[in-house]
Specification:
Elements lengths: L1 H7 L2 H5 L5 H4 L1 E2 L6 E2 L9 H5 L8 H7 L18 H9 L2 E7 L4 H17 L6 E10 L4 H14 L3 E7 L2 H5 L7 H4 L4 H4 L1
Parallel strand pairs: 3-4, 4-5
Antiparallel strand pairs: 1-2
Helix pairs in contact: 5-6
Amino acid sequence: NTDLRHIEANMFDVMTGRATLDDVILSAKQENLWIAPSRIAMAKLEVSMVGELDAPYRLKDRLDEIDDQYQAIIIDTPPTLGLTTVNALVAASHVIVPIQSSYFALEGTDDLLETIDKIKARPNTGLKILGVLVTMFDRRTILSRQVSEEIQGVFGDLVFSTTITKSVRLEESPAHQCSIFDHAPSSSGAYE
C-alpha cells in the first residue's frame, strides 16, 4: 500500500538508501506545498554514516534526482552542526541563518558561520547566505529587544525585517502534527 509507505518511510530511510524521496514526500493541506517528514531516527544517522566517503553528499544526491520537479526546496535542520546540517549545506544554494533572540545566541552563530565558510571553500562553493532570521523573539522583554538590536548591528542588511516571535501556539503545532496555519491560523506565529 503506497499510503502506508508514506507513513512509515521518512528522511532517515532516504539518507540511508532504504527509500527514495518520492516514497516519503507528502502533499500538505496548503496548495503547492509538499513535505518530506523526518523522525527522531535522524539522530542515529551520523552514527550509521561514519566513515562513508559519500556521507556529506547524500542529501544533495537525493535532491538532484528531483530538483526539477519543484520551484524551491526548503531544508530544515536541527540546531546542531553535525552531519545532517553539513548535508543540508552541501545540498543548498542559499542558507537562512536563524538566531534566537537570547543571551548566548551569537556564540553559536559563530560556529555556524565558520561551518558555512568551510562548506563554501570546497564542497559547495556556490553557497550564499540569503539572510539572518531573528527567532524566539519576545517583544515584551528588554533582553530580547537588546539581542535583536545586537544581531542587527552585527549583520546589518542581512537581517530580515520579519521576526519569528515566541508563541505557545507555534510550539504546540508540532505536537499536533500540523503546521501553525492549520493549528492556530489566527495566532501571531501564523501571520507575523
